[in-house]
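Re: the 272-residue chain
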Amino acid sequence: MPARSEPYNAPAIVTFGSEQTAWRDAAGLTKRQLAEELGFDESYVGQIENFKNLPSEPYADALDTFFKTNGVFGRLRKRILDTRHTSILPPGFVEYLEHEARATSFKNFSPILANGVLQHEDYARAILSTYYPPDVLDQRVADRMKRKETLERTQAYFTMDESVLHRMVGNEQIMRRQLEFLLELSEQPNVSIDIIPQSVGYYPGIGGEFYALGFDDGSSIAYTESSGEGLLIQDPARVARHVLRYDSLRGHALPVDQSRELIRRVIERLEA
């Protein structure tokens, strides 16, 4: 598996790499020496210890055999596999989901894809299948569908760039279902979906997706994501800036009724 530029923060991956470092140090070996003993590249050994790559089964077996651990590294690798559905999530997103589950207000800007809370199952599956192997895909899709419970208790505002409507995900049938699903959700009294048309051109804030959540106690958080990197924001001043950013972006959007009409026109083109 290719190494990542940024380290994984999943506990199982960090534990594996940390244990390797501890065993190697106890044996008085450098990374190069350990690599030679195991028959693997020194770069791979370093990637494991820096949490930037995942251990293969032969690699874990080689560590257990060399250090005579009675299967420690094999068990740690199994733990990585058991929890791998969270290992590729952006940093901060798992914690964000805990906040999302208790939010009472929800604001989201999406410049590229329909937000996960708004995704039809087929659309979500087409996206997630590019990240997850078949043996965990069904669970990941189910997890994403469960996020729709957010819409049952929140006043939710979604603003998206028109390009979201045109970006082909899966095939035309999947896209048509997704757009029809957006129309269906937009009819709910607590859900607002508006579109920033392409005619607006460039506008400040178009860079990445972000959320602003509010809670019963008056507190709020923000979460922003771009290029696979996520950041959970809890400082009130910084959260306030994201709320202001959302309100500013929404000022470029079509009114809700006109946004619905734009979605209908895109559906009609798919059916033509």
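Strands lie at 105-110, 155-161, 191-196, 209-214, 220-226, 229-233.
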